[in-house]
Write a structure and sequence with these properties.
It is a single chain. With about 200 residues, this protein is α+β, with helices and mostly antiparallel strands. It has a five-stranded antiparallel beta sheet, covered by helices on one side. Strands 1-9-8-5 form a four-stranded mixed beta sheet, with helices on one face. The relative contact order is 0.19.
């Protein structure tokens, strides 16, 4: 019964492709998972680049040479093989074999942000941009080392960040309401009040 609630293997990393990573207060949210930031043991950057080899499509030159090869075979069957036709036949055949075996090697750019939790769980959030992940890591590190609640959203598709955090310096002696407020809101505020639009 207890094994139903425990993860299968805590040492295997899980790669996650997510659209958004949200920091809300002291929680980290991605997909349908919510982590308490104080339960995160470490974060880091890993290189997940890989190379893929593809077979190159047959070129138009190879198709034209194949047609010439067929015409040479027809010509040779009617008039016999001469040494020039035989050399041309070998050259075209060698080119066709060379072109058929050509491959393209492509590097796939992928990077990951590792999240290790206190219980040994390891998640890897995948992105194509290394600098964006560095920005996410530094921001999350700042949140981990701060006592201020944050409201930050990272968009992994458009590679941008929106910070809707409110910074309050000192005791203002009144409740704080963020976002869009309708109706009458009043409070006693002393000192300079600055309104940013």
């Amino acid at each position: 019964m207890l094994s139903n609630f425990l993860p299968d293997e805590v040492t295997d990393p899980t790669e996650i492709k997510t659209s958004f990573l949200k920091i809300r207060g002291k929680t980290l949210i991605f997909g349908n998972v919510v982590y308490q930031i104080h339960n995160i043991a470490s974060i880091g950057l890993v290189d997940l680049r890989s190379t893929a080899t593809y077979k190159k499509p047959i070129s138009q030159l190879s198709i034209a040479l194949f047609v010439i090869l067929i015409l040479l075979l027809i010509y040779a069957s009617f008039f016999g093989f001469s040494s020039q036709i035989f050399v041309l036949f070998i050259a075209i055949g060698a080119w066709l074999i060379y072109d058929y075996k050509k491959t393209i090697t492509k590097t796939i750019e992928r990077y990951g942000m590792t999240i290790y939790t206190n219980n040994g769980l390891k998640k890897i959030l995948v992105s194509r941009d290394k600098e964006f992940l560095k920005k996410v890591i530094w921001t999350l590190s700042d949140v981990m080392n701060s006592n201020e609640p944050k409201d930050i959203t990272f968009n992994f598709e458009t590679l941008d960040m929106s910070d809707k955090s409110i910074e309050i310096q000192g005791n203002i002696g009144a409740p704080v309401v963020s976002g869009h407020v309708s109706g009458h809101v009043s409070g006693h505020v002393e000192g300079d009040v600055v309104n940013w639009v």
